Amino acid sequence: MILVGELSDLPPGESVRVQGEVPIAVFNVDGELYAIDDTCTHQDASLSDGWLEGCAVECPLHATCFDLRTGRPSGPPAKKPVRTHAVSVDGGLIHVHESAPVGTTPAIAEEVG
Ligand code: FES
Q1: If DSSP states are collapsed to H, E and C, what string results for 30-43?
Q2: 52 is in which domain, residue-wise?
Q3: Fewer CB within 10 A of the terminal residue: the chain, N end or C end?
Q4: CA of 71 relative to ligand 1 center, distance in Å
Q5: Nearest-atom index, ligand 1, CA of 43
Q6: In a domain, 82, yes or no
């Protein structure tokens, strides 16, 4: 569990980067908190520096949007999802519960259709 900080320091529309096993970005979307791996799966860009658009963040380098609920990219150039992490608030403090490292969980199934 990673301490992010006080909820009052992360108002709606803002993001913060914290260090887990890898950097993690935490977002406040209208009072709902989301956490994803901070590094874009395309190249070395920090998603916490991106732009929030509803429940997605746009990568600041090449504009792929990542859904904060699923980690899935909207389209190229990024093709792989980022990991998502659970977030909890207790006593006004935000914590991130880091997901298993990449490669230790089953891959997300490709959509068939
Ligand atoms: S670095 Fe994020 S889309 Fe290219």
Answers
A1: CCEEEEEECECCCC
A2: 2-97
A3: C
A4: 14
A5: 1
A6: yes
Q: Is residue 112 part of a domain?
A: no
Give the residue whose CA is nearest to atom 3 of ligand 1: 62
Q: Are the C-beta atoms of residues 4 and 19 closer than 8 Å to each other? A: no
What residue's CA is closest to ligand 1, atom 4?
A: 62
Q: What is the tally of structural domains in the chain?
A: 1
Helix count and strand count (H, E) for the chain: 0, 9
For residue 9, the SS3 value is helix
In a structure prediction context, what are the per-residue pLDDT tens digits for the chain, which is 113 residues long?
999 999 999 999 999 999 999 999 999 999 999 999 999 999 999 999 999 999 999 999 999 999 999 999 999 999 999 999 999 999 999 999 999 876 665 555 555 54
Give me ligand 1 centre to Cα 92, in Å.
33
59 lines ligand 1 (CB under 6 A): yes
Report whether 68 contacts 75 (CB < 8 A): no
